[in-house]
């Protein structure tokens, strides 16, 4: 058995030195690739691929996402779901041909999400514990692995709005009527050219005791009608565990 991050990632049965050698080379290549820019996990952080370095003093707390409660509105069903965005693996668009995974019928899986009828996406993210959220990492790789026959190339998000502690996903009209906790405009130069990742720094004082987040992609960077997101990572500090299934609205308090 081969372990990585304290988890079994491969098993070789019987005396098969050739298969064992291939597995070791594959894992070594993945490790070297992940380490080129110093990406990795801080002590006590969640496991999985990161698109950029963690800020000093904060952890990758994406493992606190309650994946059973995730919701993603206006997502094209031909691509990934909300759970896809929190997959611990490196996005397929950044993998070599040997690293990429294929479905049983030989068709490469679409491990990213795209909007459907227009450029907007509404992502509801519940957590298993209350968090102090410092920043988000959003990865979007629309220029790679795109079907050359497609009508248009999907865009990266441009304007995003964040809402703290909603009990459920917001409707698009509902979000327009509610003041966002923070609104962010992303620019082309903000995206890492190697990983297609942007770090969204939050007003930390407004993101204390967070039990859920809604991330609203208002528009994309371009004139198209589709937006693509490959991965989302949550960076901050873990708090106390909450009882799953019960999202409590946390009222505004002085200093929050």
How does the SSE layout of this entry go?
Blueprint: E1 2-4, E2 7-10, H1 17-34, E3 59-60, E4 71-73, E5 113-114, E6 121-139, E7 157-164, H2 172-176, E8 182-185, E9 197-201, E10 210-220, E11 228-229, E12 231-241
Antiparallel strand pairs: 1-2, 3-12, 4-6, 5-11, 6-9, 6-10, 6-12, 7-8, 7-10
Which properties best describe this structure?
8-stranded antiparallel beta sheet; 9% helix; 256 residues
* Mean pLDDT metric: 81
Tell me the structural class. mainly beta
Poorly predicted runs are 29-45, 102-106, 248-256
Strand proportion, as a percent range, falls in: 25-35%
Give the terminus-to-terminus CA distance. Answer: 48 Å
Tell how many strands the DSSP assignment holds. Answer: 12
Task: Quickly count the helices.
Answer: 2
Largest sheet: 8 strands, antiparallel
Described by the principal axes of the CA atoms, the overall outline is globular
Order of helices and strands: EEHEEEEEHEEEEE
Radius of gyration, whole Å: 19 Å
Helical content band = under 10%
What does this structure look like?
This protein has about 260 residues and is mainly β. It is built from two helices and twelve strands; from the N terminus they run ββαβββββαβββββ. Strands 3, 4, 6, 7, 8, 9, 10 and 12 form an eight-stranded antiparallel beta sheet that branches. Strands 1-2 form a two-stranded antiparallel sheet. β1 (about 1-5) and β2 (about 5-10) form a beta hairpin. It starts with a strand and ends in a 15-residue tail after the last strand. Residues about 30-45, about 100-105 and about 250-255 have low confidence and may be disordered.
